[in-house]
Amino acid sequence: MPVFLADISSLARLQARRPRLATLGEALVSPLPTCAHDDAEARALFSSQRPDVVRAVSLGGGRPVDLLVPCPGLRGRSGRVSYRVWQGMVPPGSFRSLGPGVFACSPEFCFLLAMPRLSWPDRLRLGYSLCGYYPPADAEVGGTHPFRAPLTSVSLLGRYLACARGAYGANLARRVVRYLLDGSASPRETDLAIVLSLPARFGGYGLKGMRLNVPVEADARSRAISPQRRFILDEYFPESKTAVEYDGRQHGEACHLARDARRRDALLCRGISLVSVTDEQLTSQWAMEGVAALIAERCGQSSRTRARDPKAARIRLSLDLFGRA
Fold this sequence. Notes:
Layout: E1 3-5, H1 7-16, E2 20-21, H2 39-46, H3 51-57, E3 65-69, E4 81-85, E5 95-99, E6 102-105, H4 107-114, H5 120-130, H6 154-162, H7 170-177, H8 187-197, E7 211-217, H9 220-223, E8 230-237, E9 242-247, H10 254-269, E10 273-278, H11 279-282, H12 285-299, H13 310-322
Parallel strand pairs: 1-6, 3-4, 9-10
Antiparallel strand pairs: 2-5, 5-6, 7-8, 8-9
């Protein structure tokens, strides 16, 4: 019996390995194979003598395995299996092969599946994590944020969704993709990027031209100040040579302050100005007003907006992202 992993089970397996593309799109249109219906069938699935199936579906930690089925009537009652229903067309590129008879939804398909049940900020957060270097929160291994290659990219998401016209949630997913950026390295970097780049009508500051985790090579002058041979800039506006970095430390230590000062001076030698944003500033709407105005000034961008009541939109976004304004 083929097994089709969905949601977090799929993403957790995909980030652990890079399986090949499964050419099953057309076959799965009518219909997806039936998955476990009840506890007995679920136990049979997990006690399978095929070790490749057991390894593919087991995540450990007691978390249910997410499986894809083609209609609500095929959902079972097992506490060890969580079911995701997909009815309708299956866009090309929706599955990856994990082994004989075991398939995972592609990152692009997982993104599409998640759209209807997520809030606007969480849709953005999911997209940033798939296109970034860290996993979605529920797919973390051991409670950490393991550094890994991006599972997809903004351009790949766009191409996939262009082939998914008419699919449930596709229009919503395409709207979200417009506001994603590649290359975030942590959840807080994502939140900072959302706040700075999202249009004012959605509660952001609408800063344009930002790139994430951009490498900048040190030259002889900067190496005389800092031993680093390469600087990775969290958020970078290349046209104005303005870098923005998230500083999540609660208290400054002398060694860190000295290192940060050397880094800042070395970047100045490269013509790059640096703005640091603390967690306290990021999670406070009024504090971010001043930070965003400074960044906009350095980037030569106007902080004015035609959006109706942008302050109210920013308060709503801050509440949605951080639970405070």
